[in-house]
Amino acid sequence: MEQDLIKEGKYKYSEFGEGTPIVVLHGLMGGLSNFSGVAEYFPLHGYKVVMPELPLYTQNILKTNVKAFARWVKDFITYKGFDRVILLGNSLGGHIALYHAKMYPEKMSGLILTGSSGLYESAMGDSYPRRGDKDYIQKKAEEVFYDPKIATPELVDEVYQVANDRLKLVKTLTIAKSAIRHNMAKDLPKMHIHTCLIWGANDKVTPPEVAEEFHQLLPNSDLYWIDKCGHAAMMEHPDEFNRLMHEWLKKMKL
Predict the structure, then answer these.
(1) Contact present, 171 and 57 (Cβ < 8 Å)
(2) 179 in Cβ contact with 66 (< 8 Å)
(3) Distances, alpha carbon 90 to alpha carbons 19, 79, 230, in Å
(4) Residue 120: strand pairing partners
(5) Which of 132, 142, 191, 200 has its CA 20 to 30 A from that of 212?
(6) Can you say whether the dihedral through the CA atoms of 87, 156, 33, 251 is positive or negative?
(7) Residues 127, 143: contact at Cβ < 8 Å?
(8) How many secondary structure helices (H) and strands (E) does the chain include?
């Protein structure tokens, strides 16, 4: 995925296929490669998959929050010349997608959330990464998945590097606090966009009751479960994730 990055002005992104645009928003500790299954599958079925690198660590600290990232996504969609898009987000990316849907519904034709924050999440439990404590980071990375083996040494190294970069750690904490502050419970009943919720039945970060609450509060939502699956369904069960997402897109004629 890294070698596929297109750099234009302030944007870095990967793009695959032609057709209806699906814009993918990654999570706080997640990279574009987390969505490689989506990027391989949907271009074969008439969709253009566009994955921007969110400016989590590159914007001024005052623009390091959910609302500012949602504005950035709107600017990116405008820059790409898309009229309306389907937004797909995991974890923090889902929260940014939700906030974008609240602020710019005219830009949206559909919304797909998996393990999204916005109501509740237990990202680090009661504690944040201690610098230099690799065992702690390994344990936290493993907790993201039902199968701890998915937390590869490369993935743990990526998180470890963020935790050991003082500026990135400060911004990570700023974003985490912003996610709590921007709770969407009051907004969701007013948001009528068609929404697909695909959730890991064993998600410990945004547990199943979070998915149930999203489903109750969002007027036009469908909820699908994947068994033996944690917080990142599109990584842990990519084929099942793609199947459910594609079925939903066909059902909604998107």
Answers:
(1) yes
(2) yes
(3) 22, 23, 12
(4) none
(5) 142
(6) negative
(7) no
(8) 9, 8
Residue 127 CB burial class (10 angstroms; 0-12, 13-18, ≥19): exposed
Query: Exposed (0-12), middle (13-18) or buried (19+): which is 61, by Cβ within 10 Å?
Result: exposed
What CA–CA distance (Å, rounded) separates 205 from 202?
9
Smallest CA-to-CA distance from 127 within 166, 90, 172 is with: 172
> What is the rounded average pLDDT of the residues 15-20?
97
Bridge partners, 226 (sequence order): 200
First CA to last CA distance, the chain: 26
The residues, ordered by sequence, that sit 6+ positions from 203 with a Cβ below 8 Å of its Cβ are: 115, 210, 211, 229, 230, 231
At residue 157's C-alpha, the angle toward residues 153 and 159, to 5°, is 120
For residue 219, which amino acid is it?
A: P
User: pLDDT, tens digit, for every residue of 72-92?
Assistant: 999 999 999 999 999 999 999
CA distance 115 to 126: 19
